[in-house]
Write a structure and sequence with these properties.
mainly alpha; 170 residues; elongated
Length: 170
C-alpha cells in the first residue's frame, strides 16, 4: 500500500467507444452537459474578453495620441482610424460567422493580418456570443450529434444473416 491516492476511474459515458466531443477553448468538453461550473466559466470568459477589448482600445488610443504628437497630418489620422474601424468590423463578422459554420482554412490564413488588426472586433464578438452559449458550442453540438447518430447507425446490428432467411410463399 502506498500513501499516494490512486486516480479516480473515469466514469463511463453514454458515448463510450463512440465519437468524442471536440473541446472548446476555456470550456473543454463541459459544454456537452453544462457541467463543471459551466455558467461561471461563461461569465469569466465574457468578463475576460471585454477586459481585453477595453485594454486594446486603450492601447489604440495611446498609439493615436502618438500620431497626434508626431503631427503626421489629418490624412494619416483619418486613414489609421478607418483601417482599424474597417478591420474591426470585418473581424467581428468573420468571428461571429465562425461560430455557426467552419471557416475555410485557406481564406482564414489569407485574412490573418486583417483579423490581427481588427482584434477588438473579434474580442467583442467573443464577448457577445458568451451571453447565449460557449463560443462555437452550437456548431460543435450539431457536429457531435451528427457523429453520434452516424456511429449508432453503423454499429447497430441486424437480426441474423439475410442469406439464411426463408422466403415467404404466397
Amino acid at each position: 500500500m502506498s500513501d499516494t491516492p490512486e486516480p479516480a476511474p473515469r466514469p463511463a459515458t453514454a458515448s463510450s467507444g463512440g465519437p468524442e466531443p471536440e473541446p472548446i477553448r476555456f470550456f473543454g468538453t463541459t459544454w456537452v452537459d453544462h457541467s463543471g461550473k459551466y455558467g461561471l466559466r461563461r461569465a469569466a470568459v465574457a468578463l475576460g474578453s471585454l477586459s481585453l477589448a477595453f485594454g486594446g482600445c486603450l492601447l489604440l488610443r495611446f498609439a493615436y495620441q502618438g500620431l497626434e504628437i508626431a503631427q503626421v497630418g489629418a490624412f494619416v489620422d483619418v486613414l489609421v482610424v478607418a483601417v482599424f474601424a474597417i478591420c474591426g468590423a470585418l473581424a467581428f463578422r468573420r468571428t461571429w460567422d465562425g461560430y455557426s459554420r467552419r471557416p475555410d482554412p485557406q481564406t482564414q490564413q489569407s485574412l490573418r493580418s486583417m483579423l490581427a488588426i481588427g482584434f477588438i472586433g473579434a474580442l467583442l464578438a467573443y464577448f457577445l456570443r458568451t451571453f447565449t452559449e460557449a463560443p462555437g458550442e452550437q456548431l460543435r453540438r450539431a457536429e457531435y450529434e451528427t457523429a453520434r447518430k452516424q456511429y449508432a447507425r453503423r454499429t447497430s446490428r441486424r437480426a441474423g444473416n439475410p442469406a439464411n432467411r426463408t422466403k415467404k410463399h404466397t
